[in-house]
Amino acid sequence: MLWDWQREVGARINEMSEAATAQDDPVARQAIYLETFADLGDRLDDLDDTIAELPPTAHTAALQTEVRTGIAAAHRELADLAAEVEATAPADEPDGRRRVPSFFGELEKVIDVVKPEIAGYEDPAFTAAFAALPACQFGVKDVDDGVPRAND
User: Is residue 129 pLDDT above 50, yes or no?
Assistant: First the structure.
């Protein structure tokens, strides 16, 4: 679930980067930024809905709280970026392509603040439930003793 979400968001950020870099019209480039920020906000809301479906364990509520705290922080990051774009008139920045690397880095924060620290939940039942989700196959490792553990 989180891996799929991270890959989808990363792909969307890459699409924004490519589209904005290729765009000559500063008004259209600004619209690309704002559309991307709105889309990422929608994806955060979808993730919030999805985490409600996690299997119940002793740590599910804590994980949901951690992810939802990250989602709220990510929404704030997106709102700040949108406000920055909206405060800059396209005519004031005819070659806004130079903003793409900055936005790319800022949008990586959106992913980072949402990631939970699974390693902090060293409970075999919880980690096993997490590992059972197909999208988490690379997020949990199975060490020699056969006990699944969160990747660091």
Answer: yes
In a domain, 135, yes or no: no
For the whole prediction, is pTM greater than 0.85?
no
Sign of CA dihedral 85, 89, 92, 93: positive
Task: Kindly report, residue by residue over 39-91, the tens digit of the pLDDT.
Answer: 999 999 999 998 888 878 788 898 899 999 999 999 999 999 899 888 887 76
Q: For residue 122, what is the DSSP state? A: -
For residue 30, which of 78, 97, 80, 75 has the smallest C-alpha distance?
97
Integer Cα distance of 37 and 84 in angstroms: 12
Asked if residue 152 is part of any domain, the answer here is: no
Domain count within the chain: 1
**Residue 143 domain-assigned (yes or no):** no
- Contact (Cβ atoms closer than 8 angstroms) between residue 124 and residue 147: yes
At 144 the three-state DSSP class reads coil
CATH of the domain at 96: 1.20.120
Nearest to 6 by CA among 138, 145, 143, 144: 138
Range of the domain at 37: 2-120
